[in-house]
Write a structure and sequence with these properties.
mainly beta
């Protein structure tokens, strides 16, 4: 019974509109609809920022456009996560079918599809938001064809909620209504087609019920295969026949009192409705009916059987001899307790062995008032028009599947409880009566015997099927199959569904018919003569529950998945994924400081060039540890406005490491970006060791940097490499001097150091530039000794802790930093006088002007129609050849005629005057040689005549061309009179704000439409945003509220009064990085180049964009035109991130921001908590977002990037804002993602694992060499330089012997040693597990500079034959072997000599000793615990 109530409550239907149900009956049609995918950015960014774990699902409801009525039940798809596909527009794939059938074949019966996003608020509660809806037309206007041919279609989506369809202003056709606004670039792909295979199971599915193919339908077998779609090819379960005998009803306190009270209440109700009293004898009980049917939770499987019950005394009088039954003890206990008895057997052949299949009993009373003058009741076969029917009791029985026969007693139910017919039922006795046992039977009981055998059944104990009462929910019965309907009863014994309702009954007591009027007429059709009128329907045919909207309930709670119960549904817990956050600045920032005096003396003696000021005096040396007092006023008032920034790369020193030192690079090069200059890649520099280099205090080994020439040689006598950047007023924009001073005061310069031979990244260094502020001094210089830090990223795992670094912040998990060396660098700023004066104000670009006026655009400067419309300084137009002015005309004049066609007029060679002149001179020379004068020769006359004919034809062509283009040329010339040109300079992510002063030139009012042809230029429609930009730029022009009339996806409109001038705000903002984004990222793929190190660097030429704004009146007349030229400027990069990741996978990283007040560029004096953070990315295919985790909580910027095929390098920029209007970025990050071929290696620590990589030759022969980022752990064979033949295939053998357990990445590059190009690159993903330790030892050593210790251990060969062994250690600096290899005979013991080195720091260290065989496989592992005291 529980399964039936659950299915019954979950599949309640709202009936169609009453007017629609009264229309002529049509055959029900089955449909299959597959919702495939959703295209477009439907989920707004604001939703993704507010909610977490955002998913999307679809809801489908049937809707009647004519009567604005939702009916049926809303179907809900499964939720899908909101994740756009890589390289494609945002797409959410559903591919989920649903099925339904309906007889309401009308074009205005549609399906409404709603897109709903759901997620969790910050407090963990669920929130569902409507993102739009679409109208799916099921039936076409042609009544013969229910739907078009099955094919993929796109459903357009509209803004708003489907509840807007209930508004009376939305009349049909809805799609063309002005109140419906389309969502741009958003659609739903679907397929709708008839599904005739569903017709055999119509009796199991109610009409207008939308069900999923994954939903379990009682009575159907599960689907074959893995799809689980049971409705695609439905299969029926085997049915059984149940027999019911000896059925009787007992009503309390007695049958007579029960019916007497019922008659009194019906008469009283008639008096309240009609206002006239009714005689108690005028209303009689005509029939007592019993409706018995099989119900599967969704509806009645077949139309219920209708039988007539009679009181027990009448049975005794008519069938005293042949009828006998056993009366239960409950009926004999009461004196005078008359019962209602069924005189026949009930046969139910549609039962199925399923827990949801039940048998429903409904007791109904039919009343009739006397129609004759004698007062006798009308006969049963001629019911009068005043006949009415009431349902008084009902019961539900869920048969026991294991039992084959038995006796059952069920309690009757009534009152306002849900029932399968959804009718109002006669009241039950008050609940304040006696005990619970009495309450179970006080409404009456029904008793019967059941059996699966037609022969009968044996006497069995009575089964008391007392069930708890369920809640009331609306529902509908299913349509019945015409082939399986029982024979219709006679007219006098019509079923309650066929009985018409009289006009004198109230809705409060009259129960509605469980079937729709259309189904009722189908049942009446066999018994009604053709042409007879359809009986009218009373207002009470549908229950009040049908008026409840079914869309409201689903938005507040999440419906259960099909086929699952509340107990089976898993509750999702709030969860925040850990993406191994990286710390901004701290994870790559190297600690630099002042070089030691020994280092300075050593470097100064090397002969580096001295930095001089403008007066040829040495620049003032500044201590890098001294504080800097920055005064912007002093910088702006400096007479030396030109700044020459000098970078001197002096030396690169090596630091001592605990492990065995890796091979030191022979050559290096540097990549960085200074200010908004192009990314810089230095030439390869040779590392030359000083002859007198001793151990300094830092125990470093300094190597000078020497420039390598094109031929590969270098001159050690001229060490160092110098770069200069000239920042003068000619380079800076007006007002940019203050920004440049702020950049030097607050930013750090990040430098990447690369191995010039292996093209592997050695590490990164960062230096503060605040000491470059001259503050009125002629020149300053500062020397730094920077740590070069290498950052190693492990594979992402779920970890929850980190350690504290010396930078005072939490070290990022899965990130290891290693100091590789120290870079000796000198920075200088030399001031110079400006070589050129600032241009006159008339020639200055209008970039600083925030207000653009079109008053100066009136008037025509003159000129021809075909002359270019560029502005001229003088009103003088010089005559030019038409072929030089108009390119289209020149193409016509110069184009040769088609072969075989007559030469068109004017197809001469006017433009080719030089060629004709040469031909004439050559002809004149020939004539002179023949002794004839050119002008008097007949051949010359013919040539001149031909030339004149050509000129005439050219003139005709020019005249025809001018006549054809006259109208267009005049319109273009007139448009120049209203065109205003303006130039702005924009950078990545920064919003350029300006206002256009538009004046109405006419004496009439206009509604102006503003059309913009660029997506990066937009109107500022929000007055709050407009006010913010005015305050930011200090603009004091008027501001108006509700200035524009937005029209959704259409262009906004503006109302202008006669001769009125208004200021229209615009904002230009680009997130496109431009073509220079990959310059730094592809530095390792460069060629050798000859670089002039002494010349200052210049800014690269950035692309120029154009945008056009057209202001058009309502009549279509243009009022003004704004032509905007955007000069893109290089932007400042605050942080550079470089990630190496396997190809064709997703990189997911979280970059943690430092505390807000420490971020460079953050606003000063922000009170209270940190301001909100907004992020944007230059690549639309990169998911970039941030979340506010609460006050005083760190903030992470989440990145999700799809890596491409190897060796693709994806570059993008991330801009961070502190204002909601995204005006100026406070941080700009550059991210490089290197996609490498992934090689997974599972290995054991200390044991060599071998694999082979396939090398494919290129077009030419190349000399290549393999380089590894961890050469002590990964070796290659061939080891040195080898030849890679063209178009050949060769194996590169790789051996991996890791020293520590865990998962990490190792880089392997194959480099062309001649061209220094990267041929191939791999990312070796190591998964190392520790070995099994067979023995453990412990030793104590003194810490500090003391001596080590010599120890011995023994090893016995367990094999009977001699074996050769090799020894390895995971700490080769702390432990060395007397012999790295040895041989021992079978069964003998060998003594291994150990040499333990001392360590400066006290503590403990576990050293592993690996004993490997001749194939380098691990035989045994010893662990020695060394305690340094």
């Amino acid at each position: 019974m529980h399964n039936w109530h659950k299915i019954f409550d979950q599949n309640l239907l709202v009936p169609p509109h009453t007017q629609r149900a009264r229309q002529p009956l049509k055959e029900s049609t089955a449909f299959q609809c597959v919702l495939k995918w959703l295209d477009g950015p439907l989920i707004k960014q604001g939703v993704l920022e507010v909610l977490s774990e955002v998913g999307c699902h679809l809801r489908v409801s049937l809707f009647d456009v004519t009567y604005r009525h939702f009916f049926g039940r809303t179907w809900k798809s499964s939720a899908r996560p909101v994740e756009p596909l890589c390289g494609q527009p945002p797409r959410i794939v559903f591919s989920e079918p649903f099925y339904f059938h309906t007889s309401l074949n009308h074009p205005n019966v549609v399906a409404v599809v709603e897109v709903v996003s759901e997620g969790r608020r910050r407090d963990g509660t669920l929130q569902a938001l409507s993102c739009g809806f679409g109208i799916l037309r099921i039936f076409s206007n042609n009544p013969e064809s229910p739907s078009s041919a099955p094919q993929d279609k796109r459903l357009r989506l509209y803004h708003g909620s489907p509840r807007a369809l209930l508004h009376p202003l939305l009349q049909d056709p809805i799609e063309q209504n002005k109140h419906m606004t389309l969502i741009e670039n958003c659609s739903l792909q679907y397929t709708l087609k008839p599904h005739p295979l569903l017709e055999p199971v119509f009796h199991l599915l109610p009409e207008n019920l939308l069900v999923s193919g994954l939903q379990q339908i009682p009575g159907l077998l599960p689907a074959h295969g893995e799809s689980g779609d049971a409705l695609r090819k439905p299969r029926l379960q085997k049915s059984l026949t149940w027999y019911l005998d000896d059925l009787f009803f007992t009503l309390y306190p007695s049958l007579e009192k029960f019916e007497e009270e019922l008659l009194e209440l019906v008469i009283s109700d008639h008096f309240r409705e009609a206002g006239s009293p009714l005689d108690s004898g005028a209303l009689e009980i005509l029939e007592r009916r019993l409706c018995v049917g099989v119900h599967n939770g969704l509806g009645f499987v077949q139309r219920p059987q209708v039988v007539v019950l009679v009181p027990e005394p009448e049975v005794a009088l008519t069938h005293s001899a042949s009828f006998s039954r056993k009366v239960g003890a409950s009926s004999k206990a009461r004196s005078g307790n008359h019962t209602l008895v069924l005189r026949s057997r009930l046969q139910l052949p549609e039962m199925v062995c399923h827990p949801a299949f039940t048998i429903v009993f409904q007791l109904e009373y039919v009343f009739n008032s006397p129609s004759g003058a004698d007062g006798k009741a009308a006969s049963v076969t001629s019911l009068s028009s005043l006949a009415c029917m009431h349902m008084v009791r009902w019961a539900v029985w869920n048969p026991v599947l294991e039992a084959s026969s038995g006796r059952v007693m069920l309690p009757l139910q009534g009152g306002i409880q849900p029932n399968p017919s959804h009718c109002l039922v006669y009241k039950v006795p008050p609940a304040s009566m006696s005990s619970e046992e009495v309450k179970q039977v006080e409404s009456g009981t029904v008793q019967f015997q059941y059996s699966l055998s037609p022969e009968g059944h044996s006497d069995t104990p009575m089964e008391h099927a007392i069930r708890p009462k369920a809640e009331q929910r609306p529902s509908r019965k299913p349509p019945t199959s015409p082939s399986s309907l029982p024979a219709p009863p006679p007219r006098g014994l019509t079923t309650p569904q066929d009985s018409p309702v009289g006009p004198g009954l109230s809705l409060s007591q009259l129960a509605a018919s469980p079937q729709s009027p259309a189904q009722r007429r189908s049942a009446e059709a066999p018994s009604r003569p053709p042409g007879s009128p359809t009986p009218p329907l009373a207002p009470g045919e549908f229950p009040l529950e049908g008026r409840i909207s079914h869309l409201e309930a689903d938005l507040s709670q999440t419906a259960l998945a099909p086929g699952t119960s509340a107990a089976e549904q898993l509750q999702e817990l709030p969860f925040t994924p850990v993406h191994a956050p990286l710390i901004v600045g701290a994870w790559t920032r190297s600690s630099g400081g002042k070089p030691s005096r020994a280092s300075l003396a050593l470097l100064r003696s090397a002969g580096f060039p001295e930095i001089l000021d403008a007066n040829k005096q040495p620049a003032e040396a500044v201590n890098p540890t001294d504080p800097v007092k920055f005064s912007p006023q002093k910088e702006e008032s400096d007479c030396l406005q030109s700044n020459e920034i000098v970078l001197q790369f002096l030396a690169f020193s090596r630091v001592s490491q605990d492990d065995q030192p890796a091979p030191w690079p022979q050559t290096v090069y540097f990549t960085f970006q200074f200010y908004r200059f192009p990314p810089e890649t230095t030439p390869r520099l040779q590392l030359v060791e000083l002859d007198e280099a001793g151990k300094t205090s830092a125990a470093s080994l300094p190597h000078l940097l020497v420039l390598i020439h094109k031929d590969g040689s270098f001159d050690a006598g001229s060490p160092g490499f110098q770069l200069k950047y000239l920042v003068d007023p000619g380079f800076l924009r007006p007002g940019e001097q203050r920004w440049f001073a702020r950049y030097l005061a607050m930013q750090t310069l990040q430098i990447d150091i690369w191995d010039g031979d292996s093209l592997l990244l050695i590490g990164s260094a960062a230096v503060q530039m605040k000491h470059l502020l001259r503050q009125g001094r002629p020149a300053v210089q500062v020397s730094h000794e920077l740590e070069v830090v290498a950052t190693e990223h492990e594979q992402d795992t779920m970890v929850v802790s980190g350690d504290v670094t010396r930078f005072g912040c939490v070290k990022p998990i899965n990130v290891h930093t290693v100091v590789k060396g120290r870079l000796h660098l000198t920075l200088a700023n030399v001031g110079h006088l400006c070589e050129r004066r600032v241009r006159s104000p008339s020639s200055l670009p209008p970039s600083r002007s925030r207000v653009i006026s079109n008053d100066g655009a009136t008037g025509f400067s003159g000129g021809g129609l075909l002359t270019p419309g560029a502005p001229r300084l003088k009103n003088v137009v010089q005559a030019q050849k038409l072929a030089d002015v108009d390119s289209e005309l020149a193409a016509l004049l110069f184009s040769p005629p088609w072969p075989g066609t007559p030469r068109p007029q004017g197809a001469g060679r006017e433009g080719d005057a030089v060629r004709r002149r040469k031909m004439e001179r050559m002809r004149a020379v020939h004539l002179r040689e023949r002794g004839a004068e050119p002008g008097r020769c007949g051949l010359g006359a013919l040539a001149q005549q031909s030339i004149r004919a050509q000129h005439a034809r050219d003139l005709q062509l020019i005249a025809a061309y001018r006549e054809r283009t006259k109208a267009e040329s005049i319109a273009n010339a007139l448009s120049l009179a209203i065109t205003t040109r303006h130039t702005v300079r924009a950078t990545l992510g920064a919003a350029e704000f300006f206002e256009f002063a538009l004046r109405n030139p006419d004496n009439t009012q206009h509604t102006v439409t503003i059309a913009i042809d660029s997506a990066e230029l937009s109107l500022i429609l929000d007055s709050r945003e407009w006010r913010y930009f005015k305050e930011l730029t200090g603009l004091h022009t008027p501001l108006e509220e509700d200035m524009f009339h937005p029209r959704g996806s259409l262009t906004p409109q503006l109302f202008l009064r006669p001769r009125e001038m208004v200021h229209i705000p615009f904002k230009f903002q680009t997130f496109s990085a431009g073509p220079r984004a990959s310059a730094q990222a592809s530095a390792e793929l460069r060629f050798e180049k000859d670089t002039d190190a002494g010349s200052p660097r210049k800014s690269s030429t950035m692309p120029t964009k154009h945008a056009k704004v057209l202001f058009r009146a309502g009549s279509g007349k243009p009022l003004a035109v704004l032509c905007l030229t955007v000069e893109l400027q290089p932007h400042v990069v605050d942080q550079v991130f470089r990630f190496y990741h396997p190809e064709l996978t997703f990189l997911k990283k979280a970059i943690r921001l430092l505390p807000w007040h420490t971020l460079p560029g953050a606003p000063v004096g922000m009170p209270g908590e940190d301001p909100p953070v907004y992020v944007r990315c230059s690549d639309p295919n990169v998911i970039c977002e941030t979340q506010n985790m609460g006050p005083r909580e760190p903030r992470d910027v989440f990145l999700k990037v799809a890596s491409g095929p190897s060796p693709e390098i994806k570059d993008f920029f991330v801009t961070i804002y502190a204002d909601r209007w995204l005006a100026t970025p406070v941080q700009t990050w550059q991210v490089h993602l290197h996609s490498l071929q992934r090689v997974d290696v599972s290995c054991v620590t200390g044991q060599r694992t071998r694999l082979a990589l396939v090398l494919r030759g290129m077009q030419t022969v190349r000399k290549v060499k393999a380089f590894s980022s961890h050469p002590q752990e990964l070796t290659t064979d061939p080891k040195g330089v080898f030849v890679l033949p063209p178009h050949g295939v060769q194996d590169l053998h790789v051996g991996v012997r890791p020293r520590r357990a865990g998962s990490r990445f190792v880089h392997l590059n194959l480099v062309d040693v001649d061209a220094h190009q990267l041929v191939a690159s791999w990312l070796v993903c190591l998964s190392c597990r520790p070995p099994l330790i067979s023995k453990a030892f412990e030793i104590t050593l003194p810490a500090g500079a003391g001596k080590g210790a010599n120890k011995r251990i023994t090893y016995t060969n367990p094999y009977p034959s001699p074996r050769a062994y090799r020894l390895h250690s995971d700490h080769p600096r702390l432990l060395q072997f007397k012999e790295d290899a040895f041989q021992v005979r079978g069964g003998e013991t060998y003594t291994i000599g150990l040499r333990f080195a001392s360590r400066q720091e006290a503590g403990e260290e576990e050293i592993l000793i690996y004993i490997n065989d001749h194939e380098d496989k691990n035989e045994e592992t010893f662990c020695v615990k060394v305690i340094y005291q």
